[in-house]
Design goal:
The complex is a heterodimer of chains A (439) and B (227). Chain A is of the alpha/beta class. Chain A has one domain: Aldolase class I (TIM Barrel, Alpha-Beta Barrel). Chain A has 15 helices and 16 strands. In chain A, strand 6, helix 3 and strand 7 form a beta-alpha-beta unit. Chain A is globular and about 70 Å long. In chain B, strand 1, helix 1 and strand 2 form a beta-alpha-beta unit. Chain B folds into two domains: 93 residues; 100 residues, no CATH class. Chain B is built from two helices and eleven strands, in the order E-H-E-E-E-E-E-E-E-E-E-H-E. With 227 residues, chain B is of the alpha/beta class. The model of chain B has no long low-confidence stretch (mean pLDDT 95). Chain B has an eleven-stranded mixed sheet, covered by helices on one side. Chain B is elongated. Classes of the chains: A alpha/beta (439), B alpha/beta (227).
């Protein structure tokens, strides 16, 4: 037996270790992998853009003293009670079931403290989140789990979910281990079964029907609530235009970096387009219809920092929404309770095991012992701190670009670092005036 | 009885009146004329008022109904009584697709035929159809009862959970995980009660019962062909 020469161990580019492991797993189990979190593959994104900052032709605002406003109003098109948020960062829909009640309550408390909105999810509205959230968006999903007209009326806005960035064209999965008595009761399902959400709404198909559905929701809620339409990033040029045509007040666009509690890995990694190009296409569609800013656009999918928020706003979004990043602020993938990560076959920093219900930090679990690891007060403090830091970052960038309101950020403030980003975002490649595809 | 002529008063104004008059003892009975296929008529009612609609209605009539008794003296479009929570909705004519979709409670009676996906995603509502239903009726039905006095279309009860389906005629085919089950005394009694509440006279002994085989409650690769 000779010694192995490490220099001779050349890994296959086509079959790297994670691909080999997945083939072995599939051969063992004969079924696709289901997991949580979002894409893990590298994708063009906001890291491929930079702000130009001020110069001789642009004056900066004094970084620590001059005012830079962050408030946004959502739902001004038809609703008689639009939402007035203090910051342009909202929390995306995440279900009770996918998240534990403590996590939902922590999110509600943090949003209330920051003057922004949180969102329900598949499974309906819990009392904890209604009580803790001053501004709560109620999702109307294909499954209609927990759908209740009383909750519809006590929501502050309604979000019709057509699709999700992690799985445009697919419904969610909540595996049996997370279907506790309370979750099952809210969804009207037997305890412990694998719950597969529908991918299409039961009573409408297509934009013509959607217009009538929106009319019904407005009738039921007295034409008060802003009505959002959430789309996964697949064909945003058409989907945004059709949502406008159907009568949406607000469009929520979720890019492929968006997270999920559980779906097929093949869906997460191979369906949909990244957030950055989807945002550009949606903004162009709104501009073509002359409704940009009249129909507000919320963008989600891979937003992690104030810089990401600033870039999304500069490209034309009115606000952003975060889901995975909010979970991380609550402790997701934190290096604590390491032994419990290992029991799941993973390590902190790599965990995507939301679907198992065995979340080591108590965020995506219904297990009382695990859930107790996240106290709502502590979680709310962490998320509030994180949102505060993001807003400070956002204001820092806006002031550096001479903007007294973050919504004044514009594409001209940006440059692209890669040809791909330049083409996708419609932003000149840094050091040039070249946008691929535009001459 | 108060009368609202929809040829002169829009749906928005009608629904506003119905909501605001809910606690007025003198406004517990309404007649709506000239609906002419308008959408969302009497949607979102919350009190036990009685509404008679004289003609055909469009989508989502009596949507999300709570407590009210709504009678449609005509045919209706998509999603009649969708997500109904309680009360009674009666269609004298035929109903288009997705009747009673995701209904949580109450009773929906369709005296004529129902289109495809009747009772889709139902969550506790009882639905009685005097005639036939279209394909995929009872799709992903979670709980409640769907009674079809005539024949049922293809893929009846596909991916059904704990709802019960009773068919007086015969289903063209059953969907994934839907099987015929024994018609016990308890089920016959329940069916008799449903037919009685619906005001439909038909012999319960003609009916067969269908429900979930519960083989798809947990995903197993051996069942992949069923999807």
């Amino acid at each position: 037996m000779g010694a192995v020469d490490p220099g001779r161990l050349r890994p296959s580019h086509t079959f790297p270790a994670h691909v080999l492991a997945e083939i072995h797993r599939a051969a063992d189990q004969g079924v696709y992998e289901i997991r949580g979190f979002g894409t893990k593959r590298p994708l063009p994104g906001f890291d491929d853009l930079v702000f130009l900052g001020a110069s001789m032709s642009r004056y900066p605002l004094e970084g620590y003293r001059e005012r830079c406003d962050t408030g946004v109003t959502l739902g001004t098109r038809f609703a008689s009670k639009p939402l007035h948020l203090k910051i342009p960062i909202t929390i995306a829909g995440m279900s009770f079931g996918a998240l534990g009640a403590n996590a939902k309550e922590a999110i509600g408390r943090a949003c209330t403290a920051m003057g922004t909105s949180s969102t329900t999810g598949d499974g309906g509205m819990t009392e904890e989140e209604r009580q803790s959230s001053e501004t709560l968006v109620y999702q109307l999903l294909p499954s209609r789990y927990g759908m209740n007209p009383d909750d519809l009326r006590r929501a502050d806005a309604i979000e019709i979910v057509v699709g999700q960035g992690a799985k445009p064209g697919g419904g969610g999965v909540l595996l049996g281990q997370k279907i506790t008595e309370r979750v099952a009761g809210m969804r009207g399902l037997p305890e412990g079964i694998d719950q597969r959400s529908a991918c299409r709404h039961p009573d409408w198909t297509g934009p013509d029907d959607l217009a009538i559905k929106i009319q019904e929701l407005r009738e039921i809620t007295g034409w008060e609530k802003p009505i959002y339409v959430k789309i996964g990033a697949s064909r945003p040029t058409y989907d945004a235009a059709l949502a406008v045509k159907a009568g949406a007040d607000v469009i929520v666009l979720d890019g492929m970096q968006g997270g999920t509690a559980a779906t097929q890995d093949v869906f997460i990694e191979h369906v949909g387009i990244p957030t950055m190009p989807a945002l550009r296409q949606a903004v162009e569609a709104l501009q073509a219809l002359d409704v940009h800013r009249e129909v507000q656009l919320i963008v989600s999918g891979g937003i992690r920092s104030g810089a990401d928020v600033a870039k999304a706003l500069a490209l034309g979004a009115d606000a952003v929404s975060i889901g995975s990043a909010a979970m991380v602020a609550l402790g997701c993938n934190k290096a604590v309770h390491v032994e419990d990560y290992r029991a799941l076959g993973t390590e902190p920093g790599y965990c995507h095991h939301c679907h198992t219900g065995r979340c080591p930090v108590g965020v995506t679990t219904q297990d009382p012992e695990l859930e107790a690891r996240l106290r709502p007060e502590q979680g709310a403090r962490w998320l509030r701190n994180y949102l505060t830091a993001m807003v400070l970052e956002l204001q820092t960038i806006a002031r550096a670009n001479g903007k007294s309101h973050v919504l004044n950020l514009e594409p001209e403030d940006l440059a692209a670092l890669t040809v791909e980003a330049a083409a996708m975002a419609g932003i000149p490649l840094a050091g040039t005036d070249w946008i691929p595809g535009r001459g | 009885m108060r009368t609202v002529d929809l040829a002169a008063t829009g749906v928005r104004e009608l629904n506003r009146r119905l909501r605001s008059a809910a606690d007025d003892p003198s406004a517990q009975s309404w007649l709506v004329t000239n609906p002419k296929g308008a959408h969302a008529i009497a949607a979102g009612l919350t009190r036990p008022v009685r509404i008679q609609i004289d003609g055909h209605v469009g989508y989502y009539c009596a949507g999300m109904n709570q407590a009210a008794a709504v009678t449609i003296d005509g045919h209706c479009g998509t999603g009649v009584a969708e997500n109904i929570m309680s009360g009674l909705v009666r269609v004298r004519g035929n109903a288009s697709q997705s009747a009673g979709a995701s209904g949580h409670g109450g009773l929906l009676v369709i005296e004529g035929n129902a289109g495809p996906r009747c009772g889709i995603s139902m969550k506790g509502v009882d639905i009685v159809v005097g005639g036939k239903t279209g394909h995929m009726s009872g799709f992903m039905a979670q709980s409640g009862n769907l009674v079809v006095c005539g024949d049922a279309g293809h893929d009846l009860g596909d991916s059904i959970y704990e709802a019960a389906i009773y068919v007086g005629g015969s289903p063209a085919s059953l969907g994934a995980d839907c099987v015929e089950k024994d018609m016990t005394r308890k089920h016959r009694s329940r069916l008799r009660d449903l037919l009685s509440r619906a005001g439909i006279e038909i012999d319960p002994d003609r009916f067969r019962r269908f429900g979930s085989a519960r083989k798809l409650y947990h995903f197993r690769v051996d069942h992949a062909d069923a999807y």
